[in-house]
Amino acid sequence: MIGKPSSLKCLMAFFLLLNCTFLFAQERVVTGKIKDPSGNPLPGVNVNVFGTRISVTADVTGTFRIPVSSESSVLVFSFVGFLQKEQKVGGDSAFNIMMTYDNADLDQVVVVGYGTSKRRDLTGSVYSVKPGMVTAQPTANAMEALQGRVPGLEIARSSGAAGGGVNIQLRGNRTLNGTTLGVAGSTATPLFIIDGFQGGNISDINPNDIESVEVLKDASATAIYGWMGANGVIIVTTKKGKDRPKVSYNGYYGINGYASYPKARIGDSYVQLRREAWRTTGDWASPADDGKIWTNAGEAQAIANNQWVDWQHLLVRNGIEQSHTASIQSGGDKTKVFFSTGYYKEQGQLRGNDFTRFNMRLNYDQKISNIFKAGLLTTFVWTNTNNRPDPLNYATGSISPLGQAYDSLGNIKWLPLGVSNGAKNPLGDEAPGAYKNNVIRGAGTVNGYLEITPMTGLSFRSNLGTSVAFQRQGLYMDSLSYSNYGLPSLARQTTTFTRFYNWDNILTYTKKIEDHSITLTGITSFTRSDEDQLQAEGRRQGLSSFQYYNLGATEASATRLISSGLVRSATMSYAGRLNYSFAGKYLLTGTIRADGVSRLSPGHKWDYFPSAGIGWNIHQEDFMKDFYWVNNLKIRATYGVAGNAGIAPYATQSVVNTTAQGGQGQNFGDIPAPGYYFTTTAGNPNVGWEKTASTNIGLDYAFFKSRIYGTLDVYKAHTKDVLMKRNLPTSTGTSNIYQNIGETENQGVELVLSSLNTKGRDFRWTTTVTFTAASEKIVNLIDGKDIIQAETNSLLIGHPVNSFYSYKKLGIWQTDEKDAAAAVKWNGQTGFNPGDIKLQDYDHNDSITIADQHYLGSTVPKWYAGLQNTFTYKGLELSVYIFARWGQMFNATYMGKYNPNGNGNGPANFNYWTPENPTNDFPRPNRKTPINQYNGYQSLNFIDGSYVKLKTITLAYTLPAQISRKVFTDKFRIYATANNVFTVTKSNLLKSYDPERSGAEDNPLTRQFVIGVNADF
What Gene Ontology terms describe where this protein resides (cellular component) (predicted)? Predict the structure, then answer.
């Protein structure tokens, strides 16, 4: 008698049957070749069996092999820049697949907050940077290459010094507080998410490691990141491993020279200014009187010896810039690895200024099973920066071009004119041992994730990461250096140790029922930031060779100081998101996020921020079938509220410091007794969230087989309870306090228009235009009145945060206006004369007073735009990029380098008024009147900063594939690039000046010429 089978035997039989069924179903393998529209092999195409996790990648010849389960299986082919293609297997075993270009990239998968989405399913305003755009311009910072290429995103290099960073702002400035320790008018920058993690530094990333960049602009797109995304979000994804191994080298080498900077007066130009200054007071009439004008004995002697010095020529050199990156992408079905190492070196225009960076990155992804997947994303960066103060403004506007820069032995002559009252030598910091400012920084990021997919449509991912950075700054200034001339030598060391921790948990559920598609996302997010700093300094260093290393050798006195501190802040957040789609036509996104931050006042730390977005893919409607020329047409609309808590940690508290530092405080005999005092910022228990409600309406379009495509966005944002560090009366005993004091409003229009102008077998011409027209203004302040603080940072209702408030210059009073000039009084007393500054009399009372100071303009442009044209012929490519910024005003501080008394220097292109030269640029020289004593001199600095710049030109050649293989490469490209080529300005006053620095007089931008190579093996 046969007994009843046991449960264990039944279970084993079931698994054996299941395994046999699986093996039987996988016995069939289909193959094929994939080509582009020109018939060339297309490697890297992803081939997936629809509805399964089975996928492969086409090899270098475009060939693929993939197992299928039945004739009803459907293969899905996808590749960036091409339309997704589906192919039913049927009874065939081999296929020839022709991919079609998709300029609109509707099926492109883009990275959004805590997930991905197809472009056709987006409701928010998300702009994707195309592959290769990040490396289109040779630069150490990837964001600099995107200037003008993303509508709504303003990017400008902050300094022309080696290793200089960039200023970034998305959709204008809506806060008075910003992120720079609460300084009014500082800009609030977007949040950077690097490989799904916060806390990274974009300047640490090698641009060659970046795979894609997405810019999230409206509340619907950024709401999932809560208050940290209040100023926009930039998501950066670095490269990952691939099934097909690839080794790459990217490198370039070039020179840097100043793009444009005014030359100083020298020779006749300098002498003539001195003559005119003395002529005005009646002390000079002809060259016979030249002996009177050289009152400085050193200058008189130098004139007699014809000793002229071109200080700019001696200070400036051609810098060098080079970059080298090697990487490998490899892996298989379960393991994928990307490793890269990079070296970047930039030598500045000034001796003693250079920047060196080493990068290493390892991205490791492991498929443990069909359920578990894990990965590790690590990076390490080491930088070494040597800085020095920029003496160019001094060499251009102050020091006389007379004298000797070096003595007879070739050593720097500290006093070029050889007299005690003469100016110091701007080359002083270049003397051996005179000056050293060195910053060494090491930073590492380790991010790990575990992803669990227990069933189809459900996934859980946990991200845990940390960023750690250590920085040491050493500073030594000798008593004879340019920076510290005449003062005791100074030695200082500052060390900073920062840590950032980020732990995110994301639960995602996706379900499709007939025409309904739903994705639910739940998130928890925790971050913590710690920073501690130690600084020690002393005066009168024992030996200059000690520099900042032996601080114990400095003078033991009250000048020896030591200080340290710790700053910590933390956040906790919960969020949920719903994405719904019906038939791929009607889209809905809803998000709610709760944020709690430590830096706000008790009782005000938590708040909720909702958003919603809808979309309609019109081109998929039946009534659009006859409009065959419409390939994409989608309307989007979003609304949301975002919070901002961007104030300094502990800013809501009254913090106590000790007076014991540096020997201060009290003593009881030999026993020190430190005292305590409150810091200058008073505590406020009522500081809460700054909230921005924004609306965005967008249109995505593609016409004529996607030959013309782009986006159009219109937005408006209203911010209330604006955070500000407000000044307090001195009688309070403190200086300032944080408060929620007002409202601001931002609105704008953003347009992207791309076109495929010509498409032939060998020739292709594409154009992309990005255009942004935006405005911003303060709607209300705490008492409904303007806050007049200074000419450059007053807060004016109805105008942008960064506005200028001063006298308005109309020109220069001319000779035929003598009577009219005399009738206008300065503060009701002294009249004006021909050659004086002509100012706007707003109240028409013939008296220029403080009441005639008004709003002049703002740093906010009326519009800015980029124009990219790319021409390709076979392997040859020419790319030309133009950038424009129009309608803004500059506080051109270098305008103050005009020295009308003739005792200093100044830019040679400054055109000043004389009876024979009735210009409206600068007033008449006067030896008895320095510039800051001219009535209305403040108005000289504020000028129109509109400009158009030929930003980048690149000429490249890519070897044909058959030739590349002969030299053992898959792809070999050589190129030459010129950057910051040429600029046209609206104002003639900006002649010989690169306006991207917004009127700053130090560290001008550089013009670069490089030659580079890209090679894949």
Answer: cell outer membrane
